[in-house]
Amino acid sequence: MTSAIAAENLQKVYRNGRGVLGIDFRIGEGEIFGFLGPNGAGKTTTIRSLLGLTHPTGGRASIAGRDVVRESVEVRRVTGYLPGDPALYENMTGRQHLELALQLRSIRERGHAQEIAMRLDIELDRKIRQLSRGNRQKVAILLAMAHDPQVLLLDEPTSGLDPLVQDAFRDLLREEQGRGKTIFFSSHVLPEVEALSDRVGIIRDGRLVAVDTVEALRRSRLKAVQLRYGGDPPDFSRVPGVRGLEVKNGAVTFHIAGNTGALFRLLAEHPPLDIAIAEPSLEEVFRTYYGGGAS
Ligand SMILES: Nc1ncnc2c1ncn2[C@@H]1O[C@H](COP(=O)(O)OP(=O)(O)OP(=O)(O)O)[C@@H](O)[C@H]1O
Ligand SMILES: [Mg+2]
After folding, report:
1. Residue 291 falls within a domain, yes or no?
2. Please, what's the largest Cα pairwise distance for the chain?
């Protein structure tokens, strides 16, 4: 079976030795794949290499079974791309951008684009210059999706979008998935990737350090716990999965991974005055589960 997107030891190494240092993945048709990594990890470089916008310095990649370098025209025909920093013409309206994009692809059909514009509440008739950052981002999303491509490559698509628009956008992507579309999107926000993806790839320093289902990521995920006690706190060191325990006066902090049943039983017996359980940061996930050494 051909993968919708495949990378084989894909490399794009810049002169300074940074970039993408050899990554492998296969993404199936109809899959939503979240590409997660901190600033400078290589997300944009990977996406641009997948589109043939930058020439890989090694390895290969394909989209819909077509080599992204040798068959770049065909690859771009079946792909929709949202750049990380969309370039729009300040003096043109969203509708003019849309018309231009569709004419360049000789597409007459407008229904799909209109549907997206309506769902994301896009201000099509104002000049880009008059639009806020989030509203520009919505226009750029429309331009990536308007020709109803089979594969979507979206570089930080939700950046600048308010929570309501993010929800509408997520619903839209799920429907596209329902229509068999394959979606590859980058982000540096763990909860967002979890909310939308089937599988997640984590990139750090130009290398893919993990590819896993969201389920597996969730199971292995640690939480940061902070408790406050009036008197002596109970002994949390024997609770399975607890690490990094610190106790200072009545304040207790630790991380916990895996099943939290034993923790909650102990908390029920010794209720704290105050409790806060937080999601780990991306860095904490890296440090704890993917080999440490986060710089
Ligand atoms: N044109 C370039 N010349 C030299 N180095 C580059 C170039 N473009 C990117 N890099 C380097 O390659 C690495 C990966 O950059 P990339 O833009 O792909 O990261 P990213 O994951 O998209 O980061 P961000 O979250 O900030 O968008 C970084 O170390 C960056 O400095
Ligand atoms: Mg980037």
Report:
1. no
2. 73
Contact 157, 185 (CB under 8 A): yes
Question: Best mutation site among 12, 14, 85, 184 for ligand 1, i.e. most ligand atoms within 8 A of its Cβ?
Answer: 14
Query: Nearest C-alpha to atom 9 of ligand 1 is from which residue?
Result: 19
**pLDDT for 276-286, tens place per residue?**
998 776 666 66
Task: Say how many Å lie between the CA of residue 244 and the centre of ligand 2.
Answer: 32
Give the predicted TM-score (pTM) of the model.
0.85
Name, in order, each residue with C-beta under 8 angstroms of 35's C-beta and a sequence gap of 6 or more: 43, 46, 47, 184, 185, 186, 187, 200, 201, 203
Atom index in ligand 1 nearest the CA of residue 37 equals 21
Residue 31 lies in a domain: yes
Give the CATH number, domain containing residue 66. Answer: 3.40.50.300
Say which amino acid occupies 113: A
31 near 199, Cβ under 8 Å? Answer: yes
> Over the stretch 71-85, which tens digit does the pLDDT of each residue have?
999 999 999 999 999
Q: pLDDT for 143-158, tens place per residue?
A: 999 999 999 999 999 9
